[in-house]
Amino acid sequence: MPDYARVHALSENRALTSSPDSLKKTPLHRLHVELGAKMVPFAGYDMPVQYPAGILKEHLHTRAHAGLFDVSHMGQLRLHGANPAAALESLVPAELQALAPMRMRYTQFTNDQGGILDDLMVTNAGDHLFVVVNAACKHADIAHLQAGLAGRVAVEYLEDRALLALQGPAAAAVLSRLVPGAATMPFMSFAKAAIRGIPVLLTRSGYTGEDGYEISVVNAEAEAVAHLLLGEPEVSPIGLGARDSLRLECGLCLYGHDIDQTTTPVEAALMWSIAKRRREQGGFPGAAVVQAQLRDGVARKRVGIRPEGRQPAREHTEIVDAAGVRIGEVTSGGFGPTLGGPVAMGYVATAQAAPGSAVTLMVRGKPLPAQVVKLPFVPQNYYRG
């Protein structure tokens, strides 16, 4: 399992030199401390890495029941304008103009080389777009949006809102006790609701591979909502450590590690997020590069890797072929509690990217046999209706 140092290194913010006094606190900070959380610097915030139960139990509890995560460090934005979907399409490769009201979509900001500046969720909230971006990138993303959409769309940073994630197979049953109708919300949908009279914005989404919801609520009411959810018998608080192992098992990318400005959506195996019209028409930064890669292929691909034995392969572990020639690098790696063994993701040369390909991981200078496998490592249990 990832210990404190491992999760510290997996932070979205690669520069973790802030003193405790300079770190920002989410509206749930007091609750984390009361619950006995171990707090660590993460993307400029003081965040819970684990609670007394420990990362392993938190991970398995989320897979079996329901876990509550504080993701208030993420950036919540509102885009206003005559046609914000059309405007935002000039910065991302997703099909947004066909996005139905109260539905959401995953996409990426790309640069002129097709590299990924950040990944994000976009929701058609009716009269505006509701956007959630990564914590470490949010201020750069806001500046990017303001510059790219100037004169067409107003960008509003919702700094007054917290964000909670309720994840796991019991999430729907739990939330339905507080929000009638929550259980029938489709995957990747949006709703305005109330929890015991507290207005909230709900999306049926998350980043654990499990069914669940993200709950946006004003800062002043965040602790009350958290207490209500934690009062349900199936729900336990979950920290960053288990959040990382959960998303890794389900093959989900972590920005700054599995994807960054040097990787394109095609290399990252995110082609599914680019609809046919956008593939054909382009109109987003780096479109020519992405279109050429879709047509001609890429030199490297993101893949899943299962090391033999129990030794995990961490980020930056070199991947070599049978002749000892370097073919890639691990971008995320650790122990998969659901599987009971190590798992990793990384980029390898396309010739070695097929599931079943044998590779070698150089762990502390020693060769570790491994095999390329199809992602995800464990099934994604999203609600399909």
Account of the protein in words:
It is a single chain. The chain is an alpha+beta fold. Among the domains are: 160 residues, Gyrase A, domain 2, CATH 3.30.1360.120; 75 residues, Elongation Factor Tu (Ef-tu), domain 3 (Beta Barrel). Helices cover 22% and strands 32% of the residues. The protein contains 10 helices and 19 strands. The strands form 4 sheets. The chain has a 6-stranded mixed sheet, with helices on both faces. Strands 14-17-16-15-18-19 form a 6-stranded antiparallel barrel. Strands 5-6-7-4-8 form a 5-stranded antiparallel sheet. Helix 3 packs across helix 8. The longest helix is centred in the middle third of the chain and has 12 residues. The N terminus is likely disordered.
Brief digest:
The protein has 385 residues and is of the alpha+beta class.
Notable traits:
Gyrase A, domain 2, 22% helix
SSE arrangement:
Elements (H helix, E strand, L loop, with lengths): L3 H6 L19 H6 L3 E5 L2 E6 L4 H10 L1 E5 L4 E7 L2 H5 L15 E7 L5 E9 L4 E5 L4 H11 L4 E5 L3 E7 L3 H8 L11 E6 L2 E6 L8 E7 H12 L4 E3 L2 H10 L26 H6 L5 H10 L3 E8 L10 E3 L5 E11 L4 E9 L8 E6 L2 E8 L12
Parallel strand pairs: 3-13
Antiparallel strand pairs: 1-2, 3-9, 4-7, 4-8, 5-6, 6-7, 9-12, 10-11, 11-12, 14-17, 14-19, 15-16, 15-18, 16-17, 18-19
Helix pairs in contact: 3-8
